């Protein structure tokens, strides 16, 4: 196909507004997949999505579409991840497109996540086509939502399409709008090859499969390519398009979207944002905008059973093959023994990895509370990046300490504004902006330390707003603060994995709440266990867990065997997720106590 008849687009939507349903509908309407295939694929996806609670990406799909003008078009849908943790990947996917469908649920309205992605799309000059979805619902208010989009985003909605992905309404209009409104790619076939990697995954048989958009030039199967950032060269074994299953082709040129397999061993060698060029006639410069994914949140992972240390290393190794943003280093804790310090893009990324380690690799892990990366300047001017609170140098060695800040945008019904402002205030937030939108919906903007967000901010936002508020945040930089290290002592011994960095003004209340929580979470032992929180050598809060007086089984009066059995089973199960610190058994929950202080 000539470049003039290619259209590359993506779909931007808040979760549950209908992105997957619309994508499926487009594939079906263009005859890209049959109804039977659709059913199978749909079921697969649903199960995974339900399990993980996140939208599984389709990656990319090429559709052939005959326009009303009688011409044959190729429409490439490039999917984007639906979560802020992966916003860099979203931005690379968008750069591979010339347009985007902005899908908004007509019975709900604009949400924070929608906004974040629309801003990214506007930044990259994409043509945006507003689609009001779910107009079949009795509660749909397309007019209200249209004025919301116009007001918040400043987008002209005169051409907005009213649609129902579920009922198949407005689908033809959407396809025609893509053809007429989204500009074709630039015709740069004569230039040296430059292809943008927007996704990749590891296949155990073929090596890494790399998804890309050809920006300039063309590429053929069998050619030798160079990745301009990783500086590695590979011969292409397989070149193809996604329809959405992989179909091999001989050649792809500027404007097209496809994949290669080239015996690439790990996704680290073919990172999202890298540029593919030809080894024989390389482009002068890579495509702009490459960034190294930088971990923002760190935690310690320790096997409950020291024998599983090597298994844990092997599992992390294997996950890393498919996840270039995952970062880990061996960590030795005086309390916990050998483990790994791991870095993640954000909380969701962290949860996905933890869950896979436990489920797919059958590991029993103790996971320590998440920490952000602090920037510490020493007296001699040296700057350290500290991602583990227990490694914070003592106050007399520090000149200053800075912490990462984020700007957070919330959208909420007006009734919850008060409680959300209170939440931000208790999290050291600084009020920035508030705007009333339509019908009692409000945007609220705060700047606050990332450390206050990675605890349970999101859960608090959801529970305080009964699920109605949404949020989005991005890093804005570092700010100096008066921070101190809070240590926790169990039975007189400091537990390095429980150390945390807090603002001095909050240290007392946090220390008190923490020891109280630990008293609840750590089971009784045969002896009394003192619990203390301290700053330096000063104890700021103390508690104790009284000794166990009677045998647990003594609770079971008489000889009810089945009850006894149950109790013993329960104990055995509880044991699995305990770590012995000296003579005290500490359960997993205790290491997360700091996330549950409210
Ligand atoms: P995503 O999270 O944006 O991918 O949203 P999904 O496509 O998974 O849709 C979320 C829910 O909305 C599902 O239960 C869909 O069946 C439903 N849905 C999607 N489009 C429509 C629509 O046009 N009308 C109605 N009534 N429901 C829809
Ligand atoms: Mg989905």
Task: Report on the architecture of this protein.
InterPro entries: EF-4, EFG_III/V, EFG_V-like, EFTu-like_2, G_TR_CS, GUFP, LepA_C_sf, LepA_CTD. One of its GO terms (molecular function) is GTPase activity. Belongs to the GTP-binding elongation factor family. LepA subfamily. Keywords: Cell inner membrane, Cell membrane, GTP-binding, Hydrolase, Membrane, Nucleotide-binding, Protein biosynthesis. It comes from Coleofasciculus chthonoplastes PCC 7420. With 598 residues, the protein is of the alpha+beta class. 27% of the residues lie in helices and 34% in strands. The chain contains 14 helices and 33 strands. The strands form seven sheets. The protein has an eight-stranded antiparallel β-sheet with strand order 11-10-16-7-8-15-12-13. Strands 2-3-1-4-5-6 form a six-stranded mixed β-sheet, with helices on both faces. Strands 21, 22, 23, 24, 25 and 26 form a six-stranded antiparallel β-sheet that branches. Bound molecules: guanosine-5'-diphosphate and magnesium ion (MG). Guanosine-5'-diphosphate (GDP) is lined by residues 13, 15-21, 55, 133-134, 136-137, 164-166.
Tell me the helix content: 25-40%
Biggest sheet statistics: 8 strands, antiparallel
Looking at the structure, what is the overall shape? globular
Round the mean pLDDT to the nearest integer and report it. 89
The number of helical runs is 14
Family: Belongs to the GTP-binding elongation factor family. LepA subfamily.
Protein name: elongation factor 4
GO molecular function: GTP binding; GTPase activity; ribosome binding
Keywords: Cell inner membrane, Cell membrane, GTP-binding, Hydrolase, Membrane, Nucleotide-binding, Protein biosynthesis
């Amino acid at each position: 196909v000539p470049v003039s008849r290619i259209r590359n687009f993506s779909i931007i939507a808040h979760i549950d507004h209908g992105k997957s349903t619309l994508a499926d509908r487009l594939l079906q309407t263009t005859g890209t997949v049959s109804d039977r295939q659709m059913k199978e694929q749909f079921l697969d996806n649903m199960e995974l999505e339900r399990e993980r609670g996140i939208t599984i990406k389709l990656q990319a799909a090429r559709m052939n579409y005959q326009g009303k003008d009688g011409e044959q078009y190729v429409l490439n849908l490039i999917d984007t991840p639906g979560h802020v943790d992966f916003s860099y990947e979203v931005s690379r996917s968008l750069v591979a497109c010339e347009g985007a469908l902005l899908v908004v649920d007509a019975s709900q309205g604009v949400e924070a996540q929608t906004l974040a992605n629309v801003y990214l799309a506007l930044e990259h000059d994409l043509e945006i086509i507003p689609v009001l979805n779910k107009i079949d619902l009795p509660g749909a208010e397309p007019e209200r939502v249209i004025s919301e989009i116009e007001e918040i985003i400043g987008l002209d909605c005169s051409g907005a399409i009213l649609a129902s992905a579920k009922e198949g309404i407005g689908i033809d209009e959407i396809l025609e709008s893509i053809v007429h409104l989204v500009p074709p790619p630039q015709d740069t076939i004569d230039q040296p090859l430059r292809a943008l990697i927007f996704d990749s995954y590891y296949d155990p048989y073929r090596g890494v499969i790399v998804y890309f958009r050809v920006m300039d030039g063309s590429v053929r199967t069998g050619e030798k390519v160079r990745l301009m950032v990783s500086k590695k060269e590979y011969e292409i074994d397989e070149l193809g398009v996604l329809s959405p299953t992989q179909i091999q082709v001989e050649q792809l040129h500027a404007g097209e979207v496809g994949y290669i397999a080239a015996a690439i061993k790990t996704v680290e060698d073919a990172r999202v944002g890298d540029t593919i060029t030809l080894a024989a006639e390389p482009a002068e410069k890579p495509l702009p905008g490459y960034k190294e994914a930088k971990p923002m949140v760190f935690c310690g992972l320790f096997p409950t059973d020291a024998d599983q240390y090597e298994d844990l290393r092997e599992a992390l190794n294997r996950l890393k093959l498919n996840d270039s943003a995952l970062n880990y280093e061996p960590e030795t804790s005086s309390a916990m023994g050998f483990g790994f310090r791991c870095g993640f893009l954000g909380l969701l990324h962290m949860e996905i990895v933890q869950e896979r380690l436990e489920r797919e690799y059958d590991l029993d892990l103790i996971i320590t509370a998440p920490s952000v990366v602090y920037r510490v300047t020493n007296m001699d001017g040296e700057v350290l990046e500290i991602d583990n609170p227990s490694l914070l140098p003592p106050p007399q060695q520090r000149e200053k300490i800075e912490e990462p800040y984020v700007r957070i945008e919330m959208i909420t019904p007006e009734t919850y504004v008060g409680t959300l402002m209170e939440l931000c205030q208790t999290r050291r937030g600084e009020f920035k902006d508030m705007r009333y939108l339509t019908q009692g919906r409000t945007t609220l903007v705060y700047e606050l330390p990332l450390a206050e967000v990675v605890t349970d901010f999101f859960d608090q936002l959801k529970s305080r707003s009964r699920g109605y508020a949404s949020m989005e945040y991005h890093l804005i930089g570092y700010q100096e603060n008066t921070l101190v290290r809070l240590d926790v002592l169990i039975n007189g011994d400091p537990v390095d994995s429980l150390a945390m960095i807090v603002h001095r003004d909050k240290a007392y209340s946090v220390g008190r709440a923490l020891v109280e929580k630990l008293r609840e979470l750590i089971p009784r032992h045969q002896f009394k266990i003192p619990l203390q929180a301290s700053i330096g050598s000063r104890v700021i809060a103390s508690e104790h867990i009284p000794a166990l007086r009677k045998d647990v089984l003594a609770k079971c009066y008489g000889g009810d065997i089945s009850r006894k059995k149950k109790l013993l089973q329960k104990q055995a199960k509880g044991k699995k997720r305990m770590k012995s610190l000296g003579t005290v058994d500490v359960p997993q929950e205790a290491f997360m106590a700091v996330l549950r202080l409210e």
